[in-house]
Amino acid sequence: MLSIGTIVLTVEDITRAGDFWRAALGYVNRSEPSDDWVILDPPDKEHWGAPGASVALSVTGYPQAYPPRIHLDLYADDQAAEIARLLALGAHEVDWDGYPDDADWVVLEDTEGNRFCVVATGPAPA
């Protein structure tokens, strides 16, 4: 049986991207980053094969494709607070007109243009 171990995001500035994703997810470096690669793990992950997806950042040298063909969905009990926090960390709102009226997600980009959705998991606002 397969499981997702690591999700790899391509980046141009590994320091900036690493700072963003460590702060966004509370993840930690698995080991010291190189100039073009770092793996970030949940802080309580005991070894690389333990449950819990890791995020790797890779400097590839080729430009980001738009729209990207893959993105992360991040779940949030307090969607508005998490969006505000992520924007303060350097995320950007994506100007997108494809939201349905009952959308429970908001599309953002990290500091490198990698898209992700912040999905509301808590009670619906009144």
UniProtKB/TrEMBL annotation:
Q: Which InterPro entries match?
A: Glyas_Bleomycin-R_OHBP_Dase, Glyoxalase_6, VOC_core
Mind giving the lineage of the organism this protein is from?
Bacteria, Bacillati, Actinomycetota, Actinomycetes, Micrococcales
Q: Which organism is it from?
A: Microbacterium terricola
- Domain (VOC) ranges: 3-121
Question: What domain of life?
Answer: Bacteria
Signal peptide (from-to) = none
Tell me the Gene3D superfamilies matching this sequence: 2,3-Dihydroxybiphenyl 1,2-Dioxygenase, domain 1 (3.10.180.10)
What SUPFAM superfamilies does the record point to?
A: Glyoxalase/Bleomycin resistance protein/Dihydroxybiphenyl dioxygenase (SSF54593)
State the name under which the record lists this protein. VOC domain-containing protein
Identify the PROSITE patterns for this entry: VOC
